[in-house]
Write a structure and sequence with these properties.
Blueprint: H1 4-15, E1 23-29, H2 33-37, E2 38-40, E3 51-53, H3 56-61, E4 65-67, E5 72-75, E6 89-91, E7 93-96, E8 103-111, E9 118-126, E10 136-141, E11 150-154, E12 170-171, E13 205-208, H4 216-221, E14 225-232, E15 236-243, H5 251-254, E16 259-260, E17 271-273, H6 280-283, E18 287-295, H7 297-300, H8 314-320, E19 329-340
Parallel strand pairs: 3-6
Antiparallel strand pairs: 1-16, 1-19, 2-7, 4-5, 5-19, 7-18, 8-14, 8-19, 9-10, 9-18, 10-11, 11-13, 12-13, 14-15, 15-17
The structure holds 2-acetamido-2-deoxy-beta-D-glucopyranose (3 copies).
Keywords: Hydrolase, Signal
GO molecular function: hydrolase activity, hydrolyzing O-glycosyl compounds
GO biological process, one term: glucan catabolic process
């Protein structure tokens, strides 16, 4: 027979609410915070884009990067004709100095790069690497005139996803190619549920959003919105999106909060990658945050002829049409990173 003491303890355990992970504000990036919090990368684009990633002083002096008290803008050049022998059109790729283990990344975005030849991405990658060790999570990604967002993971082996998951998006039918040192892809591939980057030409496992206004021109016309990515050893990887005028956006997301946690009011994420079919600890570790804007390259370039952008080549389009890139810019209202209590 149980002692009274033991009964009291088991009652207390039974009545205790289910543990909900609370994430506390670790870093805020608004306006000038990006200047000190991120590194401007200048290497050749690993995805073979027609871009010249410029350093921070160049970006600031040419206004390709611009910070104010409440806004941060990064863009591709939209004024110069690009010489064929040059590395490409000036653009930016920035990586956070800090890396984060289990976390919630909350992005309030006013505008994303849009238009023919563009391939913007907001994503995270293992600081430890080398890629694909520690994983890659593409939160916002797409090319050319693509109408909706594609979320995908790229990992080491033995990580795959079921086709039926609790998400509003669909297991993707187009490709994602966020690669480090892969050869250019010759053509399109159909969807894979396997996140293993060594398979299917590094397509990864993806979810195509079905929510309206999640990407490109329609995202911008709606005034942007919020993207939230949860990276969790227990909950897996989840991405939510709310358009600017979506009144269901949780208060913890659209106001400046010092704590955030997903609850039932958030609804199903647009994309979910549960940890039950992919061991989290062996595939993911601390990630840095990246914004980039490449042009053409392995994905945008390879599908350019079928993307409704005209009959010329992607490279010629980039070289000769500076004004086509007037809307090829990121404008961030705020980026907040929340981490678990340790
Ligand atoms: C730099 O870019 C910002 C943001 O787009 C813009 O408001 C500002 O007018 C630009 N400054 C110059 C000198 O062009
Ligand atoms: C992430 O977690 C690992 C394992 O606990 C730890 O060694 C590492 O320092 C952590 N990194 C960060 C950036 O918190
Ligand atoms: C593959 O992953 C599954 C699910 O996480 C795990 O049970 C299994 O042990 C893994 N196999 C290998 C060889 O790592």
């Amino acid at each position: 027979m149980l002692s009274t003491h033991a009964v009291a303890i088991s009652l207390a355990l039974a009545l205790a609410p289910a543990t909900v992970a609370h994430y506390h504000l670790a870093d805020t990036f608004i306006g000038h915070d990006f200047i000190n919090g991120f590194n401007w990368e200048t290497f050749d684009d690993p995805t073979h884009g027609r871009v010249n990633f410029v350093d921070q002083p160049t970006a600031l002096s040419s206004n390709l990067s611009f910070a104010s008290s409440d806004s941060f803008v990064m863009r591709a050049d939209s004024t110069q004709v690009v010489a064929p022998a040059s590395r490409g059109r000036d653009s930016i790729r920035i990586t956070s100095h800090n890396a984060y283990n289990d976390s919630m990344i909350v992005l309030d975005l006013a505008h994303m790069p849009e238009g023919c030849a563009t391939w913007p991405a907001f994503w995270t990658i293992s600081q430890g690497g080398p890629w694909p060790n520690g994983g890659e999570i593409d939160i916002i990604e797409g090319v050319n005139l693509q109408p909706s967002n594609l979320v995908s993971l790229h990992t080491t082996g033995n990580c795959s996803m079921g086709q039926q998951r609790s998400q509003t998006g669909s297991a993707a039918f187009s490709i994602s190619l966020r690669l480090y040192n892969d050869p250019p892809l010759p053509c399109r591939y159909t969807v894979s549920p396997n996140c293993d980057a060594s398979l299917n030409n590094n397509q990864g496992c993806g979810t195509q959003f079905t929510a309206p206004n999640s990407f490109g021109s329609s995202f911008n016309q709606a005034g942007g919105g919020w993207y939230v990515m949860q990276k969790s050893a227990t909950e897996g990887i989840n991405v939510w999106f709310w358009s600017r005028n979506d009144h269901t956006v949780p208060a913890a997301v659209h106001t400046n909060n010092d704590m955030v946690y997903p609850d039932s009011t958030w609804g199903s994420p647009g994309a979910t990658f549960p940890s039950d079919t992919c061991d989290y600890a062996s595939h993911f570790n601390a990630h840095q945050i990246i914004f980039d804007l490449t042009l053409c390259g392995d994905w945008a370039g390879s599908v350019f002829p079928s993307s409704g952008c005209g009959s010329g080549t992607c490279t010629d389009f980039v070289n000769n049409n500076p004004s086509a890139f007037l809307d090829a810019f990121w404008e961030v209202n705020a980026l907040r990173v929340y981490t678990l209590d340790s």
